[in-house]
């Protein structure tokens, strides 16, 4: 039996009701693959969507959350093509050029970019063989745990294998990894 796929949740932040109508029209041929949810602003729904891996934020520039306030991939909804690429967004859509194929391409691009960014982040913070945090990953985890404990501290264990390099030199790195 196959596992049901959760639909992509699209959070719309736009003052003009035309954006909602246009997006619903473009999403109709996609069936149940995406759900459009409208909200008045990011603050009213941030707790519902924070760290949601299956959501994308579609927003007009005036309602776009400030830097660092939203972890969702963001697609900017614009009236005309920008002269320079907008900062802090994964992609943008132009109202007059918006259609089902354009929206589908944009959402695919945003999802693929998100997967790539997550992979790069994981590779930067973890040993690829063991999956254990490397120095950078350790610093990130330590900062997060300290923040969770509001700076009160935490217990930390450290294991150091003296002269392990000799095992790698004698047996080879594959044996040492095992």
Question: What's a quick, concise take on this entry?
Answer:
With 178 residues, the chain is of the alpha/beta class.
Task: Please tag this protein with its features.
6 helices; 2 domains; 178 residues; single chain; 5 strands; 5-stranded parallel sheet; alpha/beta; Rossmann fold
- The helix-strand sequence is EHEHEEEHHHH
CATH architecture of the largest domain: 3-Layer(aba) Sandwich
**How large is the share of residues in beta strands?**
5-15%
In DSSP terms (H or I, runs of 4 or more residues), the helix count works out at 6
E-strand count = 5
* Rg over C-alpha atoms, rounded to the nearest angstrom: 22 Å
CATH class of the largest domain: Alpha Beta
- Classification by helices and strands: alpha/beta
Give, in spatial order, the strands making up the sheet with the most strands: 2-1-3-4-5
Per CATH, the superfamily of the largest domain is Response regulator
**Low-pLDDT windows of residues:** none
Task: From the 3D structure, determine the CATH topology of the largest domain.
Answer: Rossmann fold
Count of individual domains: 2
Main sheet: strands, sense, barrel: 5 strands, parallel
Distance between the termini: 36 Å
Helix proportion range = 25-40%
Give the overall shape, derived from the CA principal axes. Answer: elongated
The pLDDT mean sits at: 86
């Amino acid at each position: 039996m196959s596992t049901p796929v959760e639909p992509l949740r699209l959070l719309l932040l736009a003052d003009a009701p035309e954006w909602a109508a246009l997006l619903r029209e473009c999403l109709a041929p996609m069936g149940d693959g995406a759900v459009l949810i409208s909200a008045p602003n990011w603050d009213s729904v941030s707790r519902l969507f924070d760290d949601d891996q299956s959501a994308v934020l579609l927003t007009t520039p005036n309602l776009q959350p400030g830097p660092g306030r939203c972890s969702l991939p963001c697609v900017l909804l614009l009236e005309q093509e920008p002269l320079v690429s907008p900062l802090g967004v994964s992609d943008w859509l132009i109202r007059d050029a918006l259609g089902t194929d354009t929206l589908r391409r944009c959402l695919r691009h945003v999802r693929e970019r998100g997967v790539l960014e997550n992979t790069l982040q994981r590779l930067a913070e973890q040993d690829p063989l063991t999956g254990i945090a490397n120095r950078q990953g350790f610093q990130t985890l330590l900062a997060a745990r300290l923040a969770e404990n509001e700076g009160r501290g935490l217990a930390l264990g450290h294991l150091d294998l003296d002269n392990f390099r000799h095992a790698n030199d004698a047996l080879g790195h594959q044996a040492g990894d095992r």
